[in-house]
Amino acid sequence: MIAIDGVSHLFASQSRTLRQGLAAAGQRAGRTRILRTLEATLALDDVSLTIDEGELFVVMGLSGSGKSTLIRLINGLLQPQRGRVVVDGHDVAVMQKRELVAFRRDRISMVFQSFALFPHRTVGENAAFGLQIEGMNKADREARARHWLERVGLGQHMLAFPHELSGGMRQRVGLARALCVEAAIMLLDQPFSALDPITRVDLQDLLLELQSELPRTVVFVTHDFSEARRLADRMAVLEEGRVAQIGTPKAVQMVPASDHVARFIEAATLS
Ligand SMILES: Nc1ncnc2c1ncn2[C@@H]1O[C@H](COP(=O)(O)OP(=O)(O)OP(=O)(O)O)[C@@H](O)[C@H]1O
Ligand SMILES: [Mg+2]
Fold it and tell me: Is there an atom of ligand 1 within 6 Å of 65 CB?
């Protein structure tokens, strides 16, 4: 469903340093050297991975390791500078702008860490936002929003405003909004990181339950190996923009590919 092939992405302030940085990355210069010599950040460094249809794939890594950059490449907000990103049979780089907008709207939904709800819209209107963009009529989108809000346990709060909700409830609205679109691919960028441990486990269970009913292709970003272990079919660990390891959580836990990966697992065991 998603194929990332040899993708590098560099953030540079000038086109000259961008060119030089990409060339240096091609010669395996690595993030630290490129930052020191060119003051440019190699956010992703020759990343390759594939994600199957219906798979719940976790991307784990420290802050700054490139997780959000990877998500932005999958949803077409960033264009690959090196390598190829193919999503659901579409090469993101060759899609025309209009095609890309429609593709993003119809095939992909996003859940953000920061909730990103509209403060002046009710819970129901927030959940139905993507459907309004699609041009669905009011009655249909209300019915769909009601269905998914009930599913995430917020059926009683359709008319509330975001400021009247707790963080965990807001995150449920974010999840309902993504589910409403009924897209084949769902991208979740640290959706539960700001929540208390119990609410977090509840929402993880909800996500697993929804997956068992109707598997979507899910890319789920987290810092936390215990979250990865609960959720992932397979996972990738990013380290300074590179893939340190890909495998099932069990395989990663049994044979960590590096000290860096081992420390994630150790941190999860200690917590
Ligand atoms: N728009 C940008 N301009 C310049 N540098 C950027 C930009 N976006 C990201 N970066 C840099 O690229 C690197 C990877 O960033 P990214 O946001 O992908 O990390 P992340 O793994 O999502 O981190 P976090 O867990 O903190 O969200 C970081 O060093 C960051 O500073
Ligand atoms: Mg991020």
Answer: yes
Q: pLDDT (tens digit, 9 = 90+) per residue, 178-210? A: 999 889 999 999 998 888 888 889 999 999 999
**Does the beta carbon of 43 lie inside 6 Å of ligand 1?**
yes
Confidence label for 215 from pLDDT (cuts 50, 70 and 90): very high
The residues, ordered by sequence, that sit 6+ positions from 87 with a Cβ below 8 Å of its Cβ are 1, 2, 3, 74, 76, 103, 107, 108, 185
Please indicate whether residue 17, judged by its CB atom, sits closer than 6 Å to ligand 1.
Answer: no
- Ligand 2 centroid to Cα of residue 246, in Å, is 19
Q: How far apart are the first and last CA of the chain?
A: 34
* Bridge partner residues of 90 (DSSP): 87
Ligand found nearest the CA of 193: 1
**What distance in Å separates the CA atoms of residue 8 and residue 80, rounded to the nearest whole number?**
7
Q: What is the pLDDT of residues 153-162, one digit of tens each?
A: 999 999 999 9
pTM of the model: 0.93
How many Å apart are CA 265 and CA 252, to the nearest integer? 9
Beta strand 217-222 with 185-189: parallel, antiparallel or unpaired? parallel
Question: Is the CB of 21 inside a 6 Å radius of any atom of ligand 1?
Answer: no
User: Residues within 5 Å of ion ligand 2 by Cβ?
Assistant: 68
pLDDT in tens, 40-56: 999 999 999 999 999 99
Rg for the chain (alpha carbons), in Å?
19
CA of residue 238 to ligand 1 center, whole Å: 12
State the residue for tokens 């000259």. 16
Residue 247 scores a pLDDT above 70: yes
Distance of CA 231 to the CA centre of its chain: 14
